[in-house]
């Protein structure tokens, strides 16, 4: 109801998450690094005017620019600071009282051609209370002085950012004897006077002095940790400085995880075209539906005039044409994409920062585990990694990853390392599943390739258009797409070796192993040759797909992180299918996979390996070092899990239908979370219902899962239309798709040119 001015919220309201993390009301605060602060404040002049509390804020502010600064300046005097590398000047001017001297200094910036500071931070009152022993006459004089200064500040606020810092409360029990007259009652009276007088004139609302009142809230929570009862502890004043930096810099730097004070981005040309397309689809679908409904009503009851009996119409239900199904899909998709845009691009819903606690991650994990075990059913088949089992595996992994993202558990390294294994397991399944299909079926046709590529990429392409994000932003889809093409190329290139051919001659199996060795060699070479990798993916049009922030480093990092696991999946599929063909494993219902002795030994080794990896991951101290080892060792826990899950006959014969249901829409869940469950491109949390965190998560989760399920159905329906089995029709559709991407590239180039 208050509108979308998140700057006002940032300066006036919020709460602590834990002890040190400040959460502004309704928006997200970015934590600025030194380099970012310098880039924002380059060629800027910042002035702090006031008493010792403002001096504290000044030091915290300049430490964001240069952390090496020490608080060694004159206590009751002016303190200059300059960063020559970025031409930044920050000055502290000692004016502990709001009086004629302060007025004269401020007035000097409003006269003539004097260079005005870009940011002015003012605040004072405690000295007036102290010197005049808290007298009412001093308060009256304070009101008179602020009244004379207010018009000057408002004049400066037209071209500069001006902030009036309200006085923080004190911890009266800790105040020294010569400060006992500084009471919270007096401070409230001075603050009330300042707020009432500032901006009281009916001037342009855009040029008003911004009242920095949030420091009061921060002080109320932390002043008891003060050393003297008057000055804030360092962590609190650092928070105030970071808020100041967000207020000024967010609109300049536009950080993804800093939604406070950021204006809504303007619609791009491609977004406008998409909006028109979805609008026309909705209108077209409504028109066709109305026509069909009217025709159906006319034919519904045909009365025989002679007998007076009703005859059944020739067509009892309206035929759903391909065009109507297409328009219906785009109609639903248009409504869903509108929700996506409103959640994560329009300043309609609130966004908040994540805050990790062990309970916020592990309690939901236990909860979904109980639910998963409760919904246990018998599988249709008892083969290793059968369809129900792989869906179940994808499902519980996806739910764990979702909880990991919303709880902010990436800050806890042991959890991060285990989640990396889950991502690797997805890629392992990619290698296993696609290798098994091509090896058994021998189907290398264009239809199969187009079906897989469409199902993987349809949602991401639509989101790239609607949300104005690069393809590489949704990194997992490019990853599985490239690996699918690598698997296809490896097996489809001459000589094509499939199971049917290999059964006739064992040499073909050695030929396949030779292909896999060549693939492994290429992976090894590219992983240690960043230059060669970047050259391959820097060529147009690959560069348009895989660049992020102007380079392909992020893509190289993501690819390198799980570079061997797809190969491991292919190799596992080959070995498993070879053992299955030679009947060396038993996959009957309730039967152990091997003989009892071998099964027990393998089961023991698997459990030990699984726990050993978990112990190693939990003892990780350095993310970079652990990431270096991860590609080589992640397969240990994956294989251990597969053996534990499949060696005992009973365990292999059951599955969780709860997890399997989520597994069928796991890709949609992974992609949709970016914008309608999380917020600010996964950096924060979407808040539909402020003030009730648990209720908000329940509502947003319900909508999120329903949307993911609906998109999965839309994708399946469109795949049947866009990718037909008839080769000649498919060729025409591929030409249309090529034309679509050419047009998209043309409009993208126009868009980039207009931005520059």
UniProtKB/TrEMBL annotation:
Catalytic activity: CMP-N-acetyl-beta-neuraminate + acetyl-CoA = CMP-N-acetyl-9-O-acetyl-beta-neuraminate + CoA; a ganglioside GD3 (d18:1(4E)) + acetyl-CoA = a ganglioside Ac-O-7-GD3(d18:1(4E)) + CoA; CMP-N-acetyl-beta-neuraminate + acetyl-CoA = CMP-N-acetyl-7-O-acetyl-beta-neuraminate + CoA
Main location: Golgi
Coiled coil: none
Keywords of this entry: Acyltransferase, Glycoprotein, Golgi apparatus, Membrane, Transferase, Transmembrane, Transmembrane helix
Transferase as UniProt keyword: yes
Keyword Nucleotide-binding listed: no
Cas1p 10 TM acyl transferase domain ranges (all copies): 253-734
Location(s) in or outside the cell: Golgi apparatus membrane
E.C. numbers: 2.3.1.45
Domain NXPE C-terminal: residue ranges: 22-72
GO cellular component: Golgi membrane
Single Gene Ontology BP annotation: carbohydrate metabolic process
Family listed: Belongs to the PC-esterase family. CASD1 subfamily.
Protein name as catalogued: N-acetylneuraminate (7)9-O-acetyltransferase
Native source organism of the sequence: Ptilorrhoa leucosticta
